[in-house]
Write a structure and sequence with these properties.
Layout lengths: L4 E2 L8 H9 L10 E8 L3 E9 L10 H5 L2 E3 L2 E5 L5 E4 L1 H14 L7 H15 L10 E10 L11 E11 L10 E5 L17 H5 L2 H9 L4 E6 L5 E5 L3 E6 L3 E4 L10 H12 L3 E4 L4 H10 L2 E8 L3 E10 L2 E4 L5 H14 L10 E3 L2
Parallel strand pairs: 1-3, 9-10, 9-16, 13-14
Antiparallel strand pairs: 2-3, 2-8, 4-7, 5-6, 5-7, 6-18, 7-8, 10-11, 12-13, 12-15, 15-16, 16-17
Length: 358
């Protein structure tokens, strides 16, 4: 176990202010009182672990992250159970993905036990910030970035790992209803041999212009395609995609190195198999999706991710063409209910996915 130094917050948020914040948590706009920091150097490894008051960080203007985007992150949630205890979901999977991202971005890998311990240390301080409402949680953001002041193009010899947390409501806000998706024909998210399988900020920065197009066309998200493989479906700006057929199959794009391997995605694959559904991980072209929606062989579509959990897809706008789903989303909603039930302690955790944080 790593020894963490705890620095007390001089002016912690009063409980009434926390209660006020949790009444309307939104997403990613309010932050808890503390943060975790662990430093890494090429010679000393991981060191100086601490939990300290949340606040601005100091960086040299020549820090590598500011010039070469040497950065990775994770997204996780902490859930309040009925007895007041706090759990997170499959943290070892997030740690493994974090380290795959680190390897791809030439950043140091972090031991899994230190990764999980950092979450425990933060929640030991900020347990009061975990909301308990329907669909609510505390969003956890571990991230790592290059801090060495050096303008040469090479891996940084100094890196900082941090964790911050933010109370979160429903990602798309309010009542759960099918979202509208814009099909991007002008931009791609990733290319073979690129960083598509890494959770790094540059992937998201590159998707924002397409997201602006989506918003301008009344859509909540954007779907990226792979033009090298007959415009096969890749993923949304920050979520994986699933389709449901009328003969009990669940389809999702296979992991080819250009798609982020979602922790929620892999859990849903298991839950679908538990229900006796046949899961196919393969290339799915947009033409196949359109034809299946038109003739009724593809009855449902949904997106999934840590932030949004499981969200039905109602329409895809592809220029002047529309792909529509108008079914009852029975499979989508059943998978969503079971997943959220496991995470919040209302449904049996058959696979041992939960980890107690506080």
């Amino acid at each position: 176990m790593t020894e963490f130094t705890a620095i007390e917050h001089p002016n912690p948020t009063p409980q009434e202010k926390i209660t006020e914040a949790l009444a309307n948590p939104g997403f990613g706009t309010q932050f808890t009182d503390h943060m975790v920091t662990v430093e890494w150097t090429e010679d000393g490894g991981w060191q100086n672990a601490k939990v300290e008051p949340y606040g601005p960080i100091s960086l040299d203007p020549a820090a590598s992250v500011l010039h070469y985007a040497s950065e990775i992150f994770e997204g996780m949630k902490a859930y309040r159970h009925s007895d007041g205890s706090i759990y997170t979901f499959r943290p070892e999977q997030n740690a493994a993905r974090f380290n795959r991202s680190a390897k791809r971005m030439a950043l140091p890998e972090i031991p899994e036990d230190l990764f999980v311990q950092s979450l425990e240390q933060l929640l030991a301080k900020d347990k009061a910030w975990v909301p308990g409402g329907e669909g609510e949680s505390l969003y956890l953001r571990p991230y790592s970035f290059a801090t060495e002041a050096f303008l040469g193009v090479r891996p940084s010899k100094e890196v900082r790992y941090m964790v911050i947390a933010s109370p979160a409501g429903n990602f798309f806000g309010g009542e759960l209803k099918p979202v509208k998706i814009w099909v991007s024909r002008d931009y791609v998210r990733a290319a073979p041999g690129g960083t598509g399988a890494a959770k790094t900020g540059g992937n998201y920065a590159g998707s924002l212009v397409a997201q602006e197009q989506a918003a301008a066309n009344g859509c909540q998200q954007v779907l990226f395609l792979d033009p090298l493989h007959e415009n096969s479906v890749e993923e949304l700006g920050g979520m994986n995609v699933f389709l449901v057929t009328n003969d009990g199959r669940v389809l999702t794009p296979e992991l080819t190195g250009t798609i982020l391997e979602g922790v929620t995605r892999s859990a849903l694959i298991q839950l679908a198999k538990d229900r006796g559904l046949t899961v196919e991980e393969r290339r799915i072209t947009l033409d196949e999706w359109a034809a299946g929606a038109a003739d009724g062989t593809i009855t449902e579509a949904f997106a999934c991710g840590t932030a949004a959990a499981v969200t039905p897809i109602g329409e895809l706008l592809d220029g002047d063409k529309t792909i529509s789903h108008t079914g009852d989303y029975s499979t989508t909603l059943a998978l969503r209910e079971e997943l959220l039930g496991i995470q919040t302690g209302k449904v049996e955790d058959r696979h041992g996915w939960l980890h107690k944080l506080a």
